[in-house]
């Protein structure tokens, strides 16, 4: 009887270890690109006002806020690493403007003196802190359109 009891306890311990190992991974945040204004309205003067009228936005459709620290928004020629910013849940948005400015909870600034997004077509990539591609937003020449939903 003693051996049977020890065997049962061992089997339970092994089963418990298996259950812990098989626990599902944490779900990825419900975070994605929302929209972009890839062609600043008016003439491309490279003034800070014009540069900041070019932007890309993220939206969090999940119910939980997400800290974006270390996440990256990537263009083929430039990378922006997000600092300690938390995007609210349930539709919270964060805009990344191309030019210079003071970062806030909902508006970030790349600090570039040149336009980032190509008017004729481009791809924005959102990568996690671990470097995994989380979302992309791609556009082509939209025949006069300067802003699209991703």
TrEMBL record:
InterPro entries given in the database record: Lamin_tail_dom, Lamin_tail_dom_sf
Keyword set, alphabetical order: Signal
SUPFAM superfamilies (alphabetical): Lamin A/C globular tail domain
Signal sequence, start to end: 1-27
One Pfam family per UniProt: LTD
PROSITE patterns: LTD
Residue ranges of every copy of the LTD domain listed in the record: 22-149
Name of the protein described by the UniProt record: Lamin tail-like protein
Classification lineage: Bacteria, Bacillati, Actinomycetota, Actinomycetes, Micromonosporales
């Amino acid at each position: 009887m003693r051996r049977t009891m020890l065997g049962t306890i061992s089997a339970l311990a092994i089963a418990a270890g298996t259950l812990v190992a098989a626990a599902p991974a944490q779900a990825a945040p419900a975070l994605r690109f929302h929209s972009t204004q890839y062609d600043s309205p008016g003439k491309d003067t490279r003034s800070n006002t014009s540069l900041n009228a070019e932007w890309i936005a993220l939206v969090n459709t999940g119910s939980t806020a997400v800290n974006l620290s270390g996440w990256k928004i990537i263009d083929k020629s430039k990378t922006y690493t997000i600092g300690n910013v938390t995007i609210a849940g349930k539709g919270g948005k964060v805009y990344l403007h191309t030019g210079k400015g003071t970062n806030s909870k909902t508006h970030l600034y790349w600090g570039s003196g040149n336009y980032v997004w190509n008017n004729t077509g481009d791809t924005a990539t959102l990568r996690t802190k671990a470097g995994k591609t989380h979302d992309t937003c791609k556009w082509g020449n939209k025949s006069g359109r300067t802003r699209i939903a991703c």
